[in-house]
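Our preliminary data section would be incomplete without showing what the modeling component actually yields. Below, a chain of 103 amino acids is followed by its predicted structure, encoded as tokens that our downstream tools consume directly.
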Amino acid sequence: MYRERIHLTVADMDGWNEAIDAMAEINKVVERLGHPTATVWTDTVGVFNQLVAEIDHVDLASYERSTKAFYAEPDILKQLQRINHAAVPGKNYSELLETTSAI
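Predicted structure:
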């Protein structure tokens, strides 16, 4: 199992609302394409302007297929522009985690 985690910092409430709306639109497109959708998280206590989108993939091949389809879809690229507009430059990053068999 692979978990993609995308960390986003927004500047203000307008950016927050813009990013949440854009992520919801992306999930609609991704679901239509038959790929895993994101669950969006935020801190209950802590930094108030942080969002984390998590997407689970069954294997690395699934992640690669989803990523290629994601960046090839014009409707998603439009939403990414909205997210980039809402995001604080230099504060955003992504991770790709894999399950371990040690436990």
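Residues 13-33 form the longest helix (21 residues). Helices lie at 13-33, 60-72, 74-86. Preliminary results of this kind motivate Aim 1 of the renewal.
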